[in-house]
Design goal:
The complex is a heterodimer of chains A (about 110) and B (about 110). Chain A is about 0% helix and about 60% strand. Chain A contains no helices and eleven strands. In chain A, strands 2, 4, 5, 6, 9, 10 and 11 form a seven-stranded mixed β-sheet that branches. In chain A, strands 1-3-8-7 form a four-stranded antiparallel β-sheet, with no helix packed on it. With about 110 residues, chain B is an all-beta fold. Chain B is built from no helices and eleven strands. Classes of the chains: A mainly beta (about 110), B mainly beta (about 110). The interface between A and B is medium-sized, with 25 and 26 residues.
């Protein structure tokens, strides 16, 4: 019944490894996002997909590659992980409705690079 | 720039009112939002306001919007210890990017 679900919830890995985070939404929304929250709790958008098409690609190292196989899924693959990649990554989805475009968030994936 | 600004910290006593302020940037934003983040959890949408409104009340929550000054506030009446969390205001770009831009978050601490 979870609207936006991410896996895994926790990820601890060594520098230089490649890892993926998966996100699925069952709300039928047309837009999905990846946000990064740093240790000071600042939230920055990384990517946004609308109907499987990339529409936002903020200044993010090209080691980060999103993939949207369908409207309900947006995965994030990270190559050659660095210490500075340690953060909480949130997936979200949205759809324009009568209350504007509200975004619903997953519970986050806490990535720790050691 | 794209900065949405909030004060970083607020401490209140249980039962008092809390007021969290936010200054946003895009005068064309049609909706503005308040999100709550409890420790170790994701962001939960608390309330929103449409840009043609000055005020919206939802139980203990009151949102005030001053479009001229691009100022948004969230008032929590009768604040409870369970309200302790980080509160984010957010504005949405109504262009094709659908970008939701967040403030820096205000950490609310409710003292018993």
């Amino acid at each position: 019944d979870t609207a936006v679900s991410q896996t895994p919830k926790y990820l601890v890995t060594q520098m230089g490894n490649d890892k993926s985070i998966k996100c699925e939404q069952n709300l039928g929304h047309d837009t999905m996002y990846w946000y990064k929250q740093d240790s000071k709790k600042f939230l920055k958008i990384m990517f946004s997909y609308n109907n499987k098409e990339l529409i936002i690609n903020e200044t993010v190292p090209n080691r980060f590659s999103p993939k949207s196989p369908d409207k309900a899924h947006l995965n994030l693959h990270i190559n050659s992980l660095e210490l500075g990649d340690s953060a909480v990554y949130f997936c979200a989805s949205s759809q324009r409705g009568r209350q504007g475009r509200q975004a619903f968030f997953g519970q986050g994936t806490r990535l720790t690079v050691v | 720039g794209e900065d949405v600004e909030q004060s970083l910290f607020l401490s209140v006593r249980e039962g008092d009112s809390s007021v969290i302020n936010c200054t946003y940037t895009d005068s064309s934003s049609t909706y503005l939002y308040w999100y709550k983040q409890e420790p170790g959890a994701g962001l939960q949408l608390l309330t929103y306001i449409f840009s043609n409104m000055d005020m919206k009340q939802d139980q203990r929550l009151t949102v005030l919007l001053n479009k001229k000054d691009k100022h948004l506030s969230l008032r929590i009446a009768d604040t409870q210890t369970g309200d302790s969390a980080i509160y984010f205001c957010a504005e949405i770009r109504e262009d094709s990017s659908y970008k939701l831009i967040f403030g820096s978050g205000t950490r609310l601490l409710v003292r018993p």
